[in-house]
Amino acid sequence: MEAFFGNLALGFGVALTLNNIFLCFVGCMVGTLIGVLPGVGPIATIAMLLPITFGFDPTGALIMLAGIYYGAQYGGSTTAILVNIPGEATSVVTVLDGHQMAKQGRAGVALGMAAMGSFFAGTVATIFIAALGQPLTKLAQLFGPAEYFSLMIMGLVFAVVLARGSILKAICMILLGLLLATVGTDLETGQERMTLGIQDLSDGVDFAVLAMGIFGFAEIVRNLENPETRDVVRSAIGRLWPSKEDFRASYFPILRGTLIGAILGILPGNGAVLGPFASYTVEKKLAKDPKRFGRGAIEGVAGPESANNAGAQTAFIPLLTLGIPPNAVMALMVGAMTIHGIIPGPQVMTKNPELFWGMVASMWIGNLMLVIINLPLIGLWVKLLQVPYRMMFPAIMIFCCIGIYSINNSTSDVLFTAFFGVVGYTLLKFGFEPAPMLLGFVLGKLMEEKLRQALILSRGSFSTFIERPVSAGLLAVAAIMLLIALLPSIQKGRDEVFTE
Amino acid sequence: MRKCILALAAAVSLAGAAQAQTYPQRPINMVVPFAAGGPTDIVARMVAENMSKTLGQQIVVENVAGAGGTTGITRASQAKPDGYTIMMGHMGTHGAAPALYANLKYDPTKDFEPVGMAAGTPILIVTKKNFPAKDLKEMIAYLKANPDKVNQAHAGIGAVSHMTCILFNSQIGVKPTAVPYSGTGPALNDLVSGQVDYMCDQIVNLVSQIKAGSIKAMAIAMPERSPALPDVPTTKEAGMPEYEVTAWNAIFAPKDTPKEIVTALSAALDKALDDAPTKARLLELGAVLPTKAERGGDWLGGFVKKEVARWTPVLKDASK
To answer: What residues of chain B lie within 8 A of the CB of A189, using their CB?
Structure first.
């Protein structure tokens, strides 16, 4: 317990330096901004901003990138409530009751309650991460190459199982990601593989290039093809501070939402997205009068909003403690850490305690900032939502290209990004989610490395994965999860969660 | 007024003509063939900062990483030889690369004008905590007795940890199972947790783990003990004087860069290495600086030839 507080003190010491407060603020601001704007998500933004952070120290860079991520969760709800468009995938449910409240002239109350619920959830999740981090790291000390390989298999299986839509398509995308990761110089022999004789590919596909192409460029193209229809609330925002009755109705939804979100957030495969759905379902089931839901019930805003924020933060747990990214944003974080010379994994907490605890502490500070930034700025966000997209995307494109070029001072990187932009758009058109591909890509290099190391150490015997108990256990969990997901009854339920 | 402007313009152009005689007139680009923040990059930035002061123009470090550093060196070697593009080469790009890369587009001994040695970092031989040997002699005996059991980690083909350990293994005549990692960090992680038995790497990467007692240092491959780890014996003391190796970094200019420019750069580098604050910062990293005899382009040119001759047979033999 003493160590727990000592660690938090260290974290706040790091996070409260002027520099880091500033970066946290910038991250939260940018995050809110892109969260508010429909179409530009945190994945694209982090991919685009990655090159800019190269000049910062790693802690500051990650604090800022993390700020963008959870800031976007806040911003997303603003758009959901005011415009009836979810700014982020995690605020889809907020649209249902939030926008109804706005139509009734209670937009301010909905926004205020969303902010307060999110702040409470953020605080709890911060404590959760701080408490859970240490034991998980101890466990990870037992891990050798075989265990890591099995852990990654499990992570990918979870990603498949919990992904939206077709399991087959998700598997395809993960395999494509794994394949892309094998482009480049072979680790053991130094031979070039699948480079098509192109010198620029000898170190493999650059992560930032792939991410910015698949998410950034493709997203912009997709947004351009839809004519804009926006239903910005014209009526007054109303007061922000909820009434006593609103508070009374929201206490328990916030508590339950936080708990549900925090637990689901740890799961690999974008658990943070599931949180709000689960929370909304629970609140609807528990309500005395379920008919109120969808007609502006405050519980339908308070619960899911707490859940999405809690999930957004606990999603950092597998990344920070095990080095396994649970979703695409975290996969980007892995890329960011690697670029800054930090190998994600259990050793981060012991080798870079200031980074780990500094980030944890900055999340709480960031959450506090978000409440302060968001409420007074709502008027500004409303104005911003009226700027047409066709005016914004050229600027976004130019910044992307400058960013990509500056990574390696290489023009071919910009061309590769454009190429992956086309690939990403094609995939979207055929209904393939690109996120599992990025997960596969990020884990691919490490998985191959660990697989080969495990096999070298076992002198070529595949049974090493089953003979080592921890590894066998992880593989068993993965197999069971996959089986359950393939059962017809579960699969039906899985679709329903998202259609509701 | 008009006359005034003309006079001013004439004065400016005259000053320009006068300056054309002296190098440098504009910022110099220094290509570092590795990512920012690595050991070579740090050395480059430290000496570049002081050299900029001497030369009166900024030296701008440009990181062009890839293919073990050969991407950046290839690009820099093809730059215009006017003294405005120079590069920081190292043991890999200018020693081992010819043996490792079949279609290398430059020859370390012919395509460069050597400017001078900047700084090197000594190599350590380390084992896992519970390795059954208390010194280098026992370790070598164990390696020879158990050729099938031991695993040696390295950070990928062409990495310092890969090459220096191949040299070590070939000198004692063993061929252990080599386990490749994507970097020193993960390799060290598995050495700490005892998955692999030993590795060789630059002192900067290892000091904290050795001090924490999570790995054991057997010997340091240089003539004198390092102030960073005064308890670790040299290879000479440990009975293996032939194993002496540092991961060196040196400045080169593209072939046909004018002699006086190379001399100016050499002098500026020399001055940087004698500058007390720069020296102190480099030593703090555990770096070794070249002695007076080891400075300048001529010495470096000869040294590169010796390095290529030393690494080529060792690496070719290891890949058989």
So the answer is: 157
CA distances from A40 to A44, A87, A396 (A): 7, 8, 10
State the residue range of the domain holding B314. 27-120+247-318
Task: Give the CATH number, domain containing residue B214.
Answer: 3.40.190.10
Q: Is residue B168 part of a domain?
A: yes
Residue B116 has pLDDT above 50, yes or no: yes
* Cβ proximity of A339 and A54 under 8 Å: yes
Residue A179 confidence (pLDDT) above 90: yes
Residues of A in contact with B151 (CB under 8 A): 456-457
Query: Does B32 reside within a domain?
Result: yes
**Per mean pLDDT, which range of A28-32, A41-45, A155-159, A360-364 is the poorest?**
A41-45
Angstrom CA distances, A319 to A137, A176, A267, A314, A367, stand at: 11, 22, 11, 10, 20
Burial class of B180 by CB neighbour count within 10 A (0 to 12, 13 to 18, 19+): buried
Whether the Cβ atoms of residue A356 and residue A316 lie closer than 8 Å to each other = no
The answer to whether A285 faces chain B, any CB pair under 8 Å, is no
- CB spacing of B62 vs A409 below 8 angstroms: yes
**B22 in a structural domain:** no
How many domains, in total, are found in chain B? 2
- Residue B177's pLDDT is 92
Using an 8 Å CB-CB cutoff, list chain B residues near A459.
177
Residue A256 confidence (pLDDT)? 92
- Identify the bridge partners of residue B128 per DSSP, sorted by sequence position: B215
Q: Is the minimum CB–CB distance between A452 and chain B shorter than 8 Å?
A: yes
Give the number of A-B residue pairs with CB atoms closer than 8 Å.
73
Q: What is the pLDDT of residues B67-88, one digit of tens each?
A: 778 888 988 998 889 999 999 9
Q: Does B183 touch chain A (CB under 8 A)?
A: yes
| Interval B141-160 mean pLDDT | 89
